[in-house]
Amino acid sequence: MSESGDPDDALIEGLLDEALEGMVEGLPPEAIAEMRALLAEQLVSTSVGRRMLRGLKPDPRVAASAEVGDGAGIEETGQRGVGGHGAK
Q1: What DSSP string describes 1-58?
Q2: CA distance 63 to 2
């Protein structure tokens, strides 16, 4: 999986390590590799798997935005928030 350079690869590898921990002892390496490949495929190719991955990702950090600092959230009342119910 790591050949693609996808930022989700590290998350997926960690999930697979955790999921298979203690379950693969005594299995041939080929069987372990096949199990990992099948589980990884389910994570990236099904709606349930993609939803799970999104839920496990850290929230994105926004360093800059076109809306930050331009007054987009300020209404005529001069207060922030929907309907003018926010902190000044």
Answers
A1: -GGG--TTHHHHHHHHHHHHTTT-TTS-HHHHHHHHHHHHHHHHHSHHHHHHHHHHSP
A2: 28
Parse the chain into domains and list their residue ranges.
1-59
HSE-up of residue 20 (Cα within 13 Å, Cβ side): 21
By residue count, the chain amounts to 88
CA atoms within 13 A on the CB side of 49: 14
pLDDT tens readout for residues 22-65: 888 899 999 999 999 999 999 999 999 999 998 988 877 777 66
> How far is Cα 88 from Cα 74, in angstroms, rounded to an integer?
9
Q: Average pLDDT over the chain, rounded to whole?
A: 78
Condensed to tens digits (0 to 9), the pLDDT of residues 4-20 reads 567 789 999 999 999 89
